[in-house]
Structures are given as C-alpha cells and as structure tokens.
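Lecture 7 notes: from sequence to structure.
We start with the chain below.
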Amino acid sequence: MSFIRRWLGGPAGGEPRDERDPTPGEIEADERARDLELLRGEQSRLDDLRQRQLRYADRAWTPPVQGGERRADDADRNAAGEE
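Predicted structure tokens for the same chain:
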C-alpha cells in the first residue's frame, strides 16, 4: 500500500505527514526559486554565442513571407481579357 501512496503523491507509511498546508506566499517563493535554478542551469549549459543568439532572437531579421495573391501567369490572363 505504501508504494501506491507514494506513487499518488502521498507520504509513505514511515514518513511523518505534514499537516500544515503551504501558504500562497510560500508556494510562490518555491516556484520562484525553482525558476531561478532552472535559469542558472540553462545559463551554465549554453555557451556565450548561444546565449547571445537567444537574447537577440526577437530582433533578428526574417525574410518576407513567400507567396501572396499575385501569381506569375497573372499578366497573361489580364492581356487575354480573362479574369
């Protein structure tokens, strides 16, 4: 039974159960600490070039979208009087 409790997130049979629910402030602080730890890990994993690429990715030039309504044979149709 203790395996199922641990698997579902509950305490194991021998572990004392914490009856106090965490406050929203504690939850936020834990999430913030976890996010900072993830960012530190990401920073240590990436080299300087990749960090710079990620930092300036929103300012990178992208070519205009291909396509549109105009087609190569539009001039031929207009010259023939077709629409």
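Points to note: The helical segments are 2-7, 24-45, 48-55, 74-80. Residues 9 and 54 are 36 Å apart (CA to CA).
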